[in-house]
Every structure is written in C-alpha cells, then in structure tokens.
Amino acid sequence: MMPFRIAIRTNLHRIKDLELNIIAPSHGPVHNKPDFILNAYKDWASDDVKNEVIIPYISMHGSTKEMVDYFAEALIERGITVKQFNLSEPDIGKLAMAFLDAATVVIGSPTVLVGPHPKVAYAAYLANALRPKLRFASIIGSYGWGSRMVEQLAGMITNLKVELLDPVVAKGVPSEEVFKALDRLADEIENKHKELGIIIE
Ligand SMILES: Cc1cc2nc3c(=O)[nH]c(=O)nc-3n(C[C@H](O)[C@H](O)[C@H](O)COP(=O)(O)O)c2cc1C
Q1: Ligand 1, atom nearest to 108 Cα
Q2: Is the CB–ligand 1 distance for residue 109 below 6 Å?
Q3: Nearest 10 degrees: Cα torsion 45, 127, 66, 61
Q4: Core-most of 86, 114, 146, 149, by most CB within 10 Å?
C-alpha cells in the first residue's frame, strides 16, 4: 500500500463518519475490530516518519561491511535507531516493512562491474517501486579501480522524494579519512532528524 498513501488518505476521509462493525476486504483477513486496522492505516498513510535509518547492504570482501558497522555505531551513539539488512541473506519482506516509516535510508554496496552489486540493485528497485515516505538517502561503499556505483544507484531511486546526502566511498579497505567522512554523514543525519523534530533531546 506504500505507493498508494494519498489515495488511502482520501478514502479514510470518505468513510470517517460511518459506524463500522466489521471490515471485510476483497482479500486478506476480515477485521471485526475496525478501529485497530483503521488506526494502523492512518499511521501508515500519514507523512510521519520515525527516527530510524535503514541500511540495506552487501559486502563481498568485508570493506563495505566495515563501513556499515562503523556507521551504524556512529548513528546509535547519536540516539538514532538503526536497522541493518545484510542482502546476502535477505528477508525482503522485512526490508519492505522497515521502509514503512523510517526517515532515512543509507545503501551500502561494493562496486561490481562498475555499478552496484546486483542484490543491492534489487533492493533499490524495491524501494523505488514502494515509494516509502523516506526523507533522506545516502550511499556508502567500496570500489577497486573505477566506479559509477553511486551515480547508478542514485539513478535507480528517482521515485523517492528524498534529499540525497553526500555519499562516502572507499578505495578498497576504508581509511581513517573514510571513517571521518562517515562520522560527518552521521552528524548530518542527526541534524536533519533534529530539524524534523523526531529526535527528542
Ligand atoms: C566480481 C567483481 C567485480 C568487480 N568490479 C569492479 C569494478 O567494476 N570497478 C571497481 O572499481 N571495482 C570492482 N571490483 C572490486 C570491488 O569493488 C572492491 O574489491 C571493493 O573493495 C569490494 O568491496 P567489499 O569488500 O565491500 O566487497 C569488483 C570485484 C568483484 C569481486
């Protein structure tokens, strides 16, 4: 339902004065406690986002993983909830659910044949199709000799109405400079979440 938030809001408004005892949708379970599911729909269809960063990633040789682990710690230290998804063992349903109300996604990918790893491209495709209410996005990852991974990934998520924050890319194993850049990205996300009022100080 994520791509249909606007239509759902319109329809929720349309039925707001009805006294409902039961909701029997054309597919899925029958709801005999209508308020529960109606409140859930109101929440899902709203523009409200949570103080959460989703990090779908994959790493072939460990460099992107080192960056993701460091970055996740940096975000947690700043009071942000982190949901990491290792795409080599994906539960794509859980990833889709996490997209429901997170404020930010940071995609982690090594470079494979100049672009993102194919499993990361799949996750980016899913996010783009679901059009979740994300506000910010960034990309981190590693390459060996020549990469268009960031440009290609950014081109795959154009449905997302997000502000793209500066990516952080390492040549091979991440250096001290890369870790500092990850700290800066974590600072920026913290500030953006504060501006949205979703980090309570
Ligand atoms: C199958 C394969 C294809 C790759 N293609 C590229 C490439 O096109 N350009 C590049 O810069 N590096 C390429 N690399 C190198 C990786 O991007 C590089 O080793 C990176 O540091 C791996 O990150 P990881 O440790 O997170 O897997 C390739 C590596 C593999 C295994």
Answers
A1: 26
A2: no
A3: 160
A4: 149
